[in-house]
Specification:
It is built from 11 helices and 14 strands. It is of the alpha/beta class. The strands form 4 sheets. Strands 4-1-3-2-5 form a 5-stranded mixed β-sheet. A hairpin with an 8-residue loop joins β11 (243-247) and β12 (256-257).
Length: 346
Amino acid sequence: MAKDILYNKKNKTDLLNDLKKEKFKRITLSFYRYINLENLTSLRDVIYKEWSNLNILGRVYIADEGVNAQISIPKNKLIKFRKHIDSIEQFKNIPFKIAIEEGISFLKLTVKVKKEIVAYNISKDQYNMNKVGNHLDYKDFNKALDDGAIVVDMRNYYEGEVGKFENAIIPDVEKSNDLLPEIKKILSQNKKDKIIMYCTGGIRCEKASSYLLKQGFKDVSQLKGGIIQYANDIQKNNVQSKFIGKNFVFDQRLGERITQDIISTCHICNNSCDTHTNCANQDCHILFIQCNKCKNKFNSCCSEKCKKFISLPRSEQQQLFKSGKIKFNSQKSSKIKPKLYEINNY
């Protein structure tokens, strides 16, 4: 098979137009499994070919340690996809976690071979995937919260900014490879205490719990299926959620609402808001929280600086970059707040 057909070459506008023309409903779901995989390049090509034939969109990472997938699938292809997944021995009976809010989540299918399926960048002698934390369902997790367990958010700061479990420790980090050392430092005096952790779908907690156990922590548990499964379970069983706000997701939706609580503010005006967006200036593209009023005022940009920049002809933008007179932010957390009003004279 020619290699060039194993990558989507359409631009974003064409991909969006294709989605708008669809006459069927889609389901957004995710799954992962830590398991030994071999012949990764061949497996990558098989996945891309088979899933493309099912009109699946999404982001898939495979590594010698397992698979991590977030996808959008036509609802009428779900049964066929389940059969396909179960036909791959290493993926058989892998649990699916279904999104609680739909929308355009992915525009294309991307399948990549990675070093890790979560980019913690830690050596293999720092964890043992055969020994991970206890998996708690929504009932046991809620009970542990009520009993005073130390609860840790195993996500990046900007995710916890819009939604979290009550009293959760939220590390002030923006990248996964900073997370485990920071958690270890925060919990250095709690090695004998009961620790419960959570993340979006469970995958980050899997290796994190193994890491903490290897570092000498005695009682480590994790939320089974993550926030996504928790949200489905509490809705199904009519249980009050102990997670408040939005669950940040890494796709076009940027969030699923779990409760009506809004726990964050617009990064520009500080009004109540929990809508993440990327700056419309593609040379900045910073992820931040912006209310509708500021969205209109700044033309979907993060600042006057970016608003002014995108109004310039592209040739002038390029000249400014070459001259070194302009530079944009790249942070994702609340640390961007003091910089959003920055205006250069150019």
